[in-house]
Amino acid sequence: MSNIPKNLREKLIEDFELKPAIIHNYEKSNDGTIKVAFKLYDGNIVEGVIIPSADRITACVSSQVGCSLNCSFCATGYLQYKRNLLAGEIYDQVFLLKNLSIENYGIPLSNIVYMGMGEPLLNYSNVLKSVEHITSPQGLGMSPQRITISTSGIAKMIKKLGDDDVKFNLALSLHYADNEKRTSVMPINQSNNLDMLSEALDYFYKKTGTRVTLEYCMIADLNDSETDALNLVKFARLVKCKINLIEYNPIENAQYKPSSKSKTDNFIKILEQNKLIVNLRRSRGKDINAACGQLANKLIN
Length: 301
Ligand code: SAH
Ligand code: SF4
Fold this sequence. Notes:
Elements: H1 6-15, E1 22-28, E2 34-39, E3 45-52, E4 57-60, E5 64-65, E6 83-84, H2 87-105, E7 111-114, H3 124-135, E8 147-151, H4 155-163, E9 169-173, H5 179-185, H6 194-208, E10 212-218, H7 226-236, E11 241-247, H8 261-273, E12 278-281
Parallel strand pairs: 4-7, 7-8, 8-9, 9-10, 10-11, 11-12
Antiparallel strand pairs: 1-2, 2-3, 3-4, 5-6
The structure holds S-adenosyl-L-homocysteine and iron/sulfur cluster (SF4).
């Protein structure tokens, strides 16, 4: 910055450090989805994705390097947890993905989901700071209603979101509405069980007035039976919510398979018969391992 005095420049160097995330490389899927590897100041890599669809362009960003929660169906869960991302590193992902979106599709991002690597609510203050920056007029000026934070379910922090009266959307990765079975695939359920989660979600709804999304990944013969659907109905009745059924994306580390079409259709029928709002989310970017749960730094080099 040669347009500011030399002594001020020296002072800035003394007092501040720049730790930008940069694009390391990226890959485009047959369906237009782009997966990006970001290199951080310390050499760590995290991934982000942009997903174009008919009515929106969604960016998916990471909140941590790796993840400490080890869900058995998720590729990130098999990576070693290294550290929380800085607020600026989360913001940089969004900013760089916005530029890539304009370059590739001619329009900026319309939605942002914190569904990349890591558990956002275990990096609470940096995640909230990044949202502030994305929504502020000095930042990207985006509406918080276009931002969704997804959590595997940290009850205490869900309540804190309510106390902080956040304006963005919240999604809970539920995947099982039975405690014992949920714990078997998501160890975090041991200390944050379904009773604690439904109570926290209800608290969040009462404080913010925002209906939460329950994410439910359809895995063959694991959580797609009629009993599983009825358990989900019971849980969903406890909180104001809508349900996103997600097509399961196979990963290298585990043997799970996606549910069949007939099982999925039957599951949806049961939910709808019980007056629940259900969306089926088809997978995107599978050919480049960019789909939900497939982020595991395969792009490096
Ligand atoms: N840690 C947060 C956010 C990142 S995971 C969370 O767990 O919510 C983003 C979403 O992808 C979560 O709903 C997660 O459960 C889901 N997911 C993980 N592995 C998946 C897979 N193999 N196929 C489909 N969805 C998966
Ligand atoms: Fe972590 Fe979410 Fe993957 Fe579980 S699903 S291992 S919480 S990133």
